[in-house]
Amino acid sequence: MTDPSPSPRLQRRSIFKATGLITAGAAGLPAVAACSDIASQEGTAQVTEGFDFLPTYKEWPLPVEPDLVGEPPNHPSAFTSYPEPAPAVTELPSGSGTYELTVPIWGDTPSSDDPYYAAVADAWGGTKIDLRHADGNTYADTSVQWLKANEYGDAIQLFGWMLGSHSNFRETVVNNFYDLTEVLKGDIAERWPLLAGLPSASWGQSVWSRDPDDPDTAGIYGIPMNYSGGQGNGILARVDLMEAANLAMPTTVEELLEVCRAWSDDANGKWAFAGLDWFVGQWFGLGGTDGWNWDPEQQKMVNNVERPEFTEMLTFRRTLWDEQLLHPDAPTGTLDPGAMQEAGTVLFTQDNLVRWNDFNLKVKRGEAEGEVAPLPALAANGREPLVYMSAGVDGWTFLNKDLSREQVEEFLDVANWAAAPYGTTEYQLLQYGVEGEHFTIGADGSPVYTELGSSLIQAPINYKQLCGQVQTFLTGDPDMVAKRFEYNASIKDYAAENAFEGIRIEGPADFKAAGSTLWDQQQDIAYGRAELSSIPEMVETFMSNGGENARQYYTDAYLSAHGE
Amino acid sequence: MATLQTTAPTEADHAPDRPRVRRKRTVAQRLRHDWPLLLLALPVVAHLMVFHYWPSAWNIIAFLDYSPYRPFWENPFVGFAWFERLFNDPYFTPALLNTLKFSAANLLFMFPLSIVLALAMNSIVSIRLRSAFQSVVYLPHFFSWVLVVTVFVQVLGSDGLISNWLMGMGGERLNFTSNPDTFMLLVWMQWAWKDAGWGMIIFLAALASINPSLYEAAAVDGANRWRRMWHITLPSIRPVIILLLILQIGGILSVGFEQYQLQRSSIGYQSTEVLDTFVYYQSIVGNQGESFGTAAGLFKGVIGLILILVANNIAHRLGEQGIYQKS
């Protein structure tokens, strides 16, 4: 029988040759690699204070004073009644341009031909801003690619927490966005009085540098959103269920654990939590910037993972899992804790505090039963509580660098209009829409969204974050405003210290990558897939794969910022 | 001198010492002759150029410290630095091993399952039963992985249908969809439900091309059902089996993304991390950038190419066509 293939048989020599080539190539990798370093993976630190090119601050007098006076930004003032709105912009600019603004949306995309958009455009002078809604759940990650491809229209809104998805965001900013410095520098109160009334810290936090080592290359690259503070997230408890079970509101982590044990009943489908992970660190005093805290004795940064409280925290989480105080499908991350709390199958939710308001308003409307309230500031082992608070701008509206100066000025006219605070007609139109269509005035004199207003204006971001307001307040249902005001007052003294106040710092890429894996490993321990005894090894791996380099980086940044 | 064959072949043309040759046509002649075929091929060639070869050329950024914000030529050359970082990453090797593990399982258990399904279906005589069976087994292919994973969690999850039934009977809560130890079985079940029926279709097409007279002749000679399958069916579909096997081997480092990513939080990264999820978490979530991801992709591509060439070569040596006919 003949060989069906005329090609030569496998030859040992060929295999040796191929293997030799591959081996030589592999051996050569480190040598070639050593020729060059990867500069783009280094972190950046940007000072956000002390600039002489910011808009000159000129106080914009509020048309109405708040009913409850707090200590902004962590404890904002509040309105418990709805004031008669007054116009804020007296000289309306005339705009004729059309722009496209990319904004995130959580939920359904509203119809773009609703009269709301035309009414708002007319009110701010005619400039047409078309919204390009993009899914908020994936917005942070996908925005990286839109920006690199310059496919985001004329402007884009990014929240501060989204920057973590961008590697080297400074490079993205200075290459993509319009440098507003020359337009906004100095006294702008005549044309844009509301923008001049924004806190200088807002503008300072909108500064990036072309060269981080050269202060002269710094410039304003974004229109800041609201300057706010306080605690955005919390643990919401079904207080009515606790009362029914004769359980008191816990004041320490130990008491919380006892409440969880007393209430949970796995066999009968009752659990204390449907998920608890990112919030829990503060109960164990694990604060800092990106996990780093300054140790004055050692004169260096210490990461949370190196502290014994880190092990305490993971032990607590593991206890919740082992004792079936956590829903068994919690690791999937696909549960809807809010719905489960509403149904009474879970007692606590790790939540945004906005839901506190939303839930209780649902109860008032008769759409749900029960009552929720946030847990107070907690701590374990008799320590002083610690509460994460972020005083700063919520985010920015960035303008495309391809716009002309005239177009930028027109956009700033709109931003000036949108900066009008609570108690103005501009704010009312922007936040509530047209009376009779999108809201009605309720019995207590406050605006109440209609069904259309709720889906079209209340839920989506639309233009509501186009620019921060000159001052922000607690507003809405008077009962809830009073409760939130009281809650903010009770926690403000526990605010976690920020060692990098006045600096925007972005860690090196290998540190971020190591952090991503560290989080996965924490989840493994918390859900019983790895043992608590593996923590030292996990910490060592984290430190050797980016943590130790980052320590030096954060230490240098801290010392340089504090003039040491 | 060689001439074009214009008349009926003579006996002399078959003489072994006078091989028949054709005059080589010029490019212009070939263009004039083949232009309709070339025109038909043009869209595919354009598609390949734009969506495959041009992007492939950008693999070069695996050797650069690439930033889209500077002119391409200003990106510094860093040699194999990204590959070095990739291979030195402590989570790369576990991800590679997981990938190989899932690929091997797919190759060993899923590939034969599709053949078995095809053979089983081919033996169903009733056309109605056959179409019903075909629909049932291949329709899940069109479900997204999100749906497949959700169905499994709803049925087999710790708070799912079976778990709650067991609890109601006084039993223990089922720990299957969040158990790293049984993840391979779970993955196999998901594959079997979603893709075994789809994989069967190509084998069915191959089975349909077998000449029925072979079976009739074998039956006359007294061959039973198993003998017919062993001596007629399997040899007839062998080229297709080999072709698909080679393609499967070429994609050994690509086991998919969604199935593992969706179950990562419930099972844990150690059991679910494959090369594609590793690249996503390190490159996109971990912010290591495009060059790092490209280096990982290039690594996968080169290994895949080597494997496919080796497998194809072996197929040729075993007398099979492989992925192309040897000239």
Description:
The complex is a heterodimer of chains A (564) and B (327). Chain A is α+β, with helices and mostly antiparallel strands and 564 residues long. Chain A has 2 domains: 289 residues, 3-Layer(aba) Sandwich (D-Maltodextrin-Binding Protein, domain 2), CATH 3.40.190; 211 residues, D-Maltodextrin-Binding Protein, domain 2, CATH 3.40.190. A 5-stranded mixed β-sheet of chain A has the order 3-2-4-16-7. A 4-stranded mixed β-sheet of chain A has the order 10-13-9-14, sandwiched between helices. In chain A, helix 17 runs antiparallel to helix 18. Chain A is globular. Chain B is mostly helical and 327 residues long. Chain B has a single domain, classed as MetI-like fold, CATH 1.10.3720. In chain B, helix 2 packs across helix 13, helix 7 packs across helix 9 and helix 9 runs antiparallel to helix 13. The N terminus of chain B is likely disordered.
The percent range for helix content of chain A is 25-40%
Strand order of the largest sheet of chain A: 3-2-4-16-7
**Fraction of residues in β-strands of chain A:** 5-15%
| SS elements, strand count of chain A | 19
Distance from first to last alpha carbon of chain B: 24 Å
What sort of overall outline of chain A do the alpha carbons produce when their principal axes are compared? globular
Q: What count of structural domains of chain B?
A: 1
Biggest interface pair, counts: A-B, 57 and 52 residues
**Annotated CATH topology of the largest domain in chain A:** D-Maltodextrin-Binding Protein, domain 2
> pLDDT below 50 for ≥5 consecutive residues: which ranges of chain A?
1-36
What average pLDDT do the residues of chain A reach?
89
Number of helices of chain B: 13
CATH superfamily of chain B: MetI-like
Helix and strand content put the structural class of chain B at mainly alpha
CATH classification, class level of chain B:
Mainly Alpha
Mind telling me which CATH architecture of the largest domain in chain A this is? Answer: 3-Layer(aba) Sandwich
CATH fold title of chain B? MetI-like fold
